[in-house]
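User: Quick sanity check before I run a bigger batch. Here is a single chain. Can you write out its predicted 3D structure?
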Amino acid sequence: MSVSLYRVKFARTMLLLQLVTFVVIGALFALKDLTWGMSAFSGGLAAWLPNVLFMIFAWRHQAGDPVKGRVAWSFALGEVLKVLATILLLIVALAVFKAVFMPLGLTWLSVLIVQIVAPAVINNKG
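Assistant: Done. Predicted structure follows.
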């Protein structure tokens, strides 16, 4: 298996783990109250969707031979877009949809923790 294909497979696994995390947490909060469940779902979406956009951005700029310096700039631009998208989604969830802060924040943090911890667990599985 090529290195590029391995990276795409790893990124898809990470995104799937994050998706499952916020859907499960959202469903658990929905058992308490539907508003809490939707708030948790929007918090997870605010963490997950920018990661998806960043991965698409990275895969599009990975095609062909990378030019020296271009990789660093495309990574930095992707990170800036990711942070701006996260802030925008959190503002929309809190201000427009009047989401409850606690489930939104807990789900958002849970998805970020999965993003940090999962690579170590996946790489040490064998």
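The chain has a mean pLDDT of 87.

User: Great, the batch can go ahead then.
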